Amino acid sequence: VHIMDDMIKRALDFRESKEAEPHPLWEYPCHCLSEPQQILTFDFRHPVPPHPVRAEGSIELRRPGRSHGAVLWMEYHLTPDSTVSTGLLKPPDDKGDCCWNPHCKQAVYFFTSPDCRVPQGGPRTVSYTVEFHPHTGDISMDFT
Predict the structure, then answer these.
(1) pLDDT band, very low/low/confident/very high, at 114 (cuts 50, 70, 90)
(2) What is the pTM of this model?
(3) Which of 15, 21, 88, 113 lies 20 to 30 Å from 78, alpha-carbon distance?
(4) Which residues form the Protein arginine N-methyltransferase domain (predicted)?
(5) What's the CA dihedral at 66, 69, 75, 80 to 10 degrees?
(6) Which range marks the domain in which residue 65 is found?
(7) Is the model's pLDDT at 30 over the cut of 70?
(8) Beta 138-143 vs 65-67: how paired, if at all?
């Protein structure tokens, strides 16, 4: 399998290393090492802002394991009692098992370091910068 991993890494390094790829995560066994965290908010009741919308921060990895990437999705809060999620259908359980929406694909940003391990004894963090460019509709991102 490492031959395929090396080929994919070279392709990502060549072109798309700062982009998220759509994947139907319900098909893959995976575990959340962190709790879901809101990164950007869009209020569709207002016009699109003329300037880029940027968010920076960090995510604490609370569960032990190997982290391969970050997953992004949208949640639409239609009314105070009605939310539609294109990602997790419910919060991860204590072990980090995920229940992904099978009718949507989630955006996966693969880390360039394939061996990001979270130790048993202490938390680690992943820093992020995400920016929405309203003129093009593009979202640039970086996770380290």
Answers:
(1) low
(2) 0.81
(3) 21
(4) 4-143
(5) 40
(6) 17-38+54-143
(7) yes
(8) unpaired
Residue 72 has pLDDT above 70, yes or no: yes
What amino acid is encoded at 62 in this protein?
R
- The answer to whether the beta carbons of residues 133 and 48 sit under 8 Å apart is no
DSSP H or E segment with residue 82:
strand 82-85
Q: Which residues contact 18 (CB under 8 A, 6 or more apart)?
A: 140, 141, 142
Report the run of H or E that residue 6 belongs to, with start and end: helix 2-11
Above 80 in pLDDT, residue 121?
Answer: no
Q: Which two tokens stand for residue 111?
A: 């880390």
- The first and second tokens of residue 27, run together, are 């098909």
Query: Would 91 be classed as within a structural domain?
Result: yes
Write down the pLDDT at residue 34.
93
Per the domain annotation, does 4 fall within a domain?
A: no
**What is the reported pLDDT for 118?**
60
Residue 115 lies in a domain: yes
